[in-house]
Amino acid sequence: MACQRGALIVLEGVDRAGKTTQCKMLVQALQKSGRPAEAMRFPDRTTTIGQLISAYLEKKSELEDHTVHLLFSANRWELVPTMKKKLEQGITLVVDRYAFSGAAFTSAKPGFSLEWCMKPDVGLPKPDLVMFLQLSPAEAALRGQFGVERYETRVFQNAVQQKFELLMKDSSVNWQVQDGLGCRVSPFIVSFKARRKN
Ligand code: NYM
């Protein structure tokens, strides 16, 4: 019997919105319900490209803005064969950030259109569900470690939030907005099952 393809679930939001915690909880809940599930995150800082990105985010190196945008995208593309393989094996992938972060963060910089920013990621595996954890940049700033990495200023995060709001107008993407303050995983699964298309 052919196994059912896994689902591709993406969590997005401004920095410190709680995506990493929610990803972990969601993977655990899916596994507990008997569905094979694994977590992934972008940037994946373990690859050669990911290490260049990590040094940039940690302010240990400088990269030209277009260049780092394309590196973020290349970091997703290099993981596509692995993602496809796992999805075909029936493993559900819960991904902490994806191309939406790529477009929202770079287009928050001066001189970058959303349209240009989205182009390098055209053709990536399409998520079955994108959950946006809604948390005001002011709330996010109160959470631990805010301000350590590049982009972690309230002004920049406000600009990123506005770009995410534009991205969420795309009805071809299965967006679901969740309250980032005190949201729980179980409603995620219910709505994921209800709205899953494949
Ligand atoms: N980021 C993340 C981008 O600017 N472009 C991208 O394509 C992606 C995936 O990197 N500030 C930014 C968002 C975050 C940072 O942080 C990664 P973290 O804590 O590893 O999710």
- Structural domains: how many: 1
Q: How many H/I helices?
A: 9
pLDDT < 50 runs, ≥5 residues: none
In the CATH hierarchy, the architecture is 3-Layer(aba) Sandwich
What is the count of β-strands? 5
Mean pLDDT: 91
The string of secondary-structure elements, in order, is EHEHHHEHHEHHEH
Alpha carbon gap, first and last residue: 17 Å
Our Rg estimate from Cα atoms comes to 16 Å
Q: Give the overall silhouette.
A: globular
Proportion of residues in helical segments = 40-55%
Class of secondary structure makeup = alpha/beta
Q: What CATH first level would be assigned?
A: Alpha Beta
Strand content: 5-15%
List ligands, each type once: 3'-deoxy-3'-aminothymidine monophosphate
InterPro entries: P-loop_NTPase, Thymidylate_kin-like_dom, Thymidylate_kin_CS, Thymidylate_kinase
Family: Belongs to the thymidylate kinase family.
GO molecular function, one term: ATP binding
Function: Catalyzes the phosphorylation of thymidine monophosphate (dTMP) to thymidine diphosphate (dTDP), the immediate precursor for the DNA building block dTTP, with ATP as the preferred phosphoryl donor in the presence of Mg(2+).
Topology of helices and strands:
Elements: E1 8-12, H1 19-32, E2 37-41, H2 48-57, H3 65-77, H4 80-88, E3 92-96, H5 99-107, H6 114-118, E4 129-134, H7 137-142, H8 154-167, E5 175-179, H9 186-195
Parallel strand pairs: 1-3, 1-4, 2-3, 4-5
Helix pairs in contact: 2-3, 3-5, 5-8
The structure holds 3'-deoxy-3'-aminothymidine monophosphate (NYM).
3'-deoxy-3'-aminothymidine monophosphate is lined by residues 15, 42-43, 57, 72, 97, 101-102, 105, 151.
